[in-house]
Amino acid sequence: MKTITATIILFAVAMGTHAQLTTNEPAHWQYKLTRFDGKIDSSVPTSSDTCSTPEVETIGTSHEDKETTPGHECDLKWEFIGRNKDKDVYHFTFTRMTKSGSSDRTTTFKDIQFDGKQVVVFEDALHTVVMKTPEPEDLKTAGQTQ
């Protein structure tokens, strides 16, 4: 019974978020998405993807980042789903190992409202995914200007 009640509450909250979405506008914020092995800044980032320009991120624009290194396998997918006032809304799906050396995997879904401030998208003992505004040196590396 508790599971059914919790599911209904989560569904209502999720529907409330989507009800406020504007879907006819491109993304507002440029972002850098970084995946770490372990905690934030505990090791060298394993990957990062900087959006070229916010105007390119339109409804349905999706991305994927896979890690195939043994012991760190994961699959991160994200999609721009709209804007909520001044925040860009992304839907994330993260499939990953549950513990080192195990073949067990878990999948987590999460909607993030990004307003340019750093947000931890996912975090567990093996993986951390962070979304933030790119630094000027990130843009230079990618051949972009602010």
Percentage of residues in helical conformation? 10-25%
Number of strands: 8
Q: Biggest β-sheet, characterized? A: 4 strands, antiparallel
Spatial sequence of strands, sheet with the most strands = 2-1-8-7
Q: Mean pLDDT, as a whole number?
A: 80
Rg over C-alpha atoms, rounded to the nearest angstrom: 16 Å
- Distance between termini? 52 Å
- Write down the secondary-structure element order: HEEEEEEEEH
Low-pLDDT residue intervals, each spanning 5 or more residues? none
- Strand composition percent: 35-45%
The structural domain count equals 1
The shape is globular
Oligomeric nature of the chains: single chain
What's the helix count?
2
Tag the structure with descriptive keywords:
single chain; 146 residues; alpha+beta; four-stranded antiparallel β-sheet; 2 helices; globular
Secondary structure: elements and pairs:
Layout: H1 2-19, E1 32-37, E2 45-50, E3 62-67, E4 74-84, E5 87-97, E6 105-114, E7 119-123, E8 127-132, H2 136-141
Antiparallel strand pairs: 1-2, 1-8, 3-4, 4-5, 5-6, 7-8
